[in-house]
Amino acid sequence: MRLGSLRGQRGQSVVELALVLPILLLLLLGMVDFGRLGAAYLSLQHAAREGVRLGITGATDGEIVERIQESAAAVDARQLTISIAPPEAERFPGAELTIELGYPFRPVTPFIENVMGSEATLRVRLVSRVE
């Protein structure tokens, strides 16, 4: 093998890396974003379930909100929007208790941000009968 032919191929690896690396990083960040999205959604579902369990046993709205905020571990509880219906005075056995949670999700991957917007709102709604 001639020395001149090896010198011409040394830069080829750097060029290939420069072409492939941005795509790999984008895929990696996309997987991280979808993982964050899944964790946030599961956390909202868990928090809504905990709030409904407490609410159907006769708890006040304040107690329900506190339980929901404690149970939402993977999200910032201060950014949660919590809606509880019907009001406490209208809850009687057999009536439906509805809890809706909303949470703003911001992706970190620029490509995903272009596709779904700079912020998406995750929503969870759970309905159960009062005991």
What keywords describe this structure?
3 helices, three-stranded antiparallel sheet, alpha+beta, 19% strand, TadE-like domain-containing protein, 131 residues
Distance between the termini: 84 Å
Counting DSSP E segments of at least 2 residues, the number of strands comes to 3
* Radius of gyration over C-alpha positions, nearest whole angstrom: 24 Å
Overall outline: rod-shaped
The total domain count is 1
Pfam families: TadE
InterPro entries: TadE-like_dom (IPR012495)
Domain TadE-like: 11-53
Protein name: TadE-like domain-containing protein
Quick structural overview:
With 131 residues, the chain is of the alpha+beta class. The protein has helices spanning 3-55, 61-71, 110-116; strands at 81-85, 96-105, 120-129.
Task: Describe the 3D structure.
This protein is about 55% helix and about 20% strand. The chain is of the alpha+beta class and about 130 residues long. It has a 3-stranded antiparallel beta sheet, with helices on one face. Helix 1 runs antiparallel to helix 2. The radius of gyration is 24 Å and the shape is rod-shaped.
